[in-house]
Amino acid sequence: MTTKRKNVAIVCGGDSGEYEISVQSGNVVSKFLDKEKFQPFLIYIKGKDWFFKPSEDSTINIDKNDFSLTIDGEKTVFDVVFNALHGTPGEDGKLLGYLDMIGIPYTSSNHIVSALTFNKDFCKQVVKSVGVALADSVLLRRGQSFKAHEVVSELGLPLFVKPNSNGSSVGVSKVNSEKELKPALEKAFKEDEYALIESFIKGREIGCGVFEFKGRMMVLPITEIISKNEFFDYDAKYTKGKSDEITPADVDEDIDLEIKALAAQLYNRIGCRGFVRFDFILTDEDIYFLEVNTVPGMSAASIIPQQAEVMGISLSDFFGMAIENVI
After folding, report:
1. Percentage of the chain with pLDDT > 70?
2. What is the pTM of this model?
3. Mean pLDDT score, 300-314
4. Whole-angstrom Cα distance, residue 52 to residue 47?
């Protein structure tokens, strides 16, 4: 007896500077999903336009009343949504709240967790409550007055300026002098209403993937990220040869275990679901929380696929586990 394949809507695109990266992630998921179990449909979302492309020169709009497609007069409904949409509305909870309302399961954290983690300052407050080390920071709203010398006096130099709600290092700047602060803020405010200014923590950048599968916590091998740019910016993340990503990271076993335990603790404390990547800065004194990514990249250059491969899990199995975890 042949089991009917599950219809999987792989959502990608979005309304941020991560659009192209999200499309790359969606294509990787579509390519590696087990076609004997799943029927993938790559769904593009851009503003009010939600559509499927059966060919390069044609599109079919999604019916937003029930998130369905009508192809050649036949209605297709989806058993599950694979969330590969970085940035808004897939990573900040907006799309997920809609899916909750119409009753379609999805692979990522829920809308509350996604909204919390997408807001870097809010997320830091939760992480701080667990007692995890954090960089000192100042949050500014667009149009709010500030004195550059006071910010520099409080946080020191260099420092980082980033949109409070964004990903893939879009709009992020490293500031090495007081005069660079204003243009860095202007860059960040192009992406978000709020900007987060953080002190610089000198150390090794470490990424750790976590995934809970049917009640069993899986912590992936940790990765050290060594950027060949001044920091791990958008260019370094997505341009081949601009960074070295070493998996597993060359750290002492006790440090490896401590980072993994911390990532697992935060996964549970925040209430995450699906694939999540935690980024830390490892210094000689402590492990500093940097950020959490609830819709991590799945493109060929992304860290989570690299970690899964080192752990001996194929992408086909990995993606299938994410779907089987929620249906």
Report:
1. 94
2. 0.91
3. 90
4. 14
Q: How far apart are CA 293 and CA 25, in angstroms?
A: 14
| Two structure tokens written together for 54 | 């059966």
299: confidence class by pLDDT, cuts 50, 70, 90 = confident
* Tokens encoding 248: 């597993």
Q: Is 25 exposed, middle or buried (0-12, 13-18, 19+ CB in 10 A)?
A: buried
Q: What distance separates the 2 farthest-apart alpha carbons in the chain?
A: 72
Quickly tell me which residue has 């809970």 as its tokens. Answer: 212
Torsion 125-96-92-304 (CA) sign: positive
Check: CB of residue 173 under 8 Å from CB of residue 180.
yes
Place of tokens 């294509």: 27
**CA 125 to mean position of chain CA atoms:** 19
pLDDT at 27 over 90: yes
Domains along the sequence of the chain with CATH: 6-108 (3.40.50.20), 115-131+202-324 (3.30.470.20), 136-199 (3.30.1490.20)
3-state secondary structure of 298: coil
